[in-house]
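REVIEWER CHECKLIST
Item 1: Sequence provided? yes
Item 2: Single chain? yes
Item 3: Sequence as submitted:
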Amino acid sequence: MANVLPSWAIASGITAGWVWTGMGYPTPWQVLRDELPGLSPLERTSWQARLRSKAHHSVETIGKIRLLSSQSTAVEVLLRGHNIDAGAAQMLFLLGANSSLDQLLGQRRTSPTERHHAEVMLERAKLLRNRYPDITRYTS
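Item 4: Structure as written out by the authors:
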C-alpha cells in the first residue's frame, strides 16, 4: 500500500479499516490530506482527498503508511462507508466488544442522508454483535 498511496496521503475510511482489520478491500482508496503542504488541484481531485480535521482525525503511522487511528477510522467507516455489511463488520473489530456503537454517531454532525445511512450500518453492526458473540468478544 505504501507503494501505491502518495507520501502525503493519510489512509481513511475503508482503506484504513482494511489495514486495521484485514476485512473487506482497501479500494476504492479513501484518503485525507493535511492543509500543508498544499496539493495541486489535479492531484487533490484525482485522489478525492478531503482535508483532515485535527479535531476529528487522529493519525498513527504503521511502517511507511500514515492512517487514521482505529477510533477515527470507525467513525469514518460509519459516516463514509458505502457497503453496509463490510462497514459494520469493520466497525465491530475496530471498536471491540464492549464499546458503545451509538456514541459514534454523536461524534460528528451529519446530513439527514448520512445519518440514515449511519443508523442502518449501526443496526447491522448490533445484529452482527448479537448473532456472533463468540467472534466479537475477542476484539476488546
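Item 5: Key structural point noted by reviewer: Helices lie at 13-21, 41-47, 70-80, 84-95, 102-105, 112-131, 133-136.
Item 6: Recommendation: ____
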